[in-house]
Design brief:
Heat Shock Protein 90; about 110 residues; about 25% strand; alpha+beta; single chain; globular
Length: about 110
Amino acid sequence: MTWKGKDHACPHIEQASPTWRSAWGSAAAIASITVRITPDGDHVQIIISDNGPGIPEADRARVFERFVRATDHGEGCGLGLSIVRDIVAQHGGTVDLGDAQPHGLQVVIRLPRL
């Protein structure tokens, strides 16, 4: 995914582009990923939803810790969500995990508009 120019509503996205590439690269087993970018007052929301197995609610807080993985199988070293959270926080934003409907994971990234 390439972001051109500095005129879009959320220039922070350029720093996160390696994260986007990682998400798309590890999504081979997921049939569908939806990304929506919507204004929300003085913020911008980036909502990423998939139709994979999701992350159980009891595990959602701890998957932001370094080297913690949501599953015991598959690839990855448990750094992705930790890095996402750190980058978003550096720009004054938040990351929340929830359920996508009818199943899957929904990630809501909220960043201040510039």
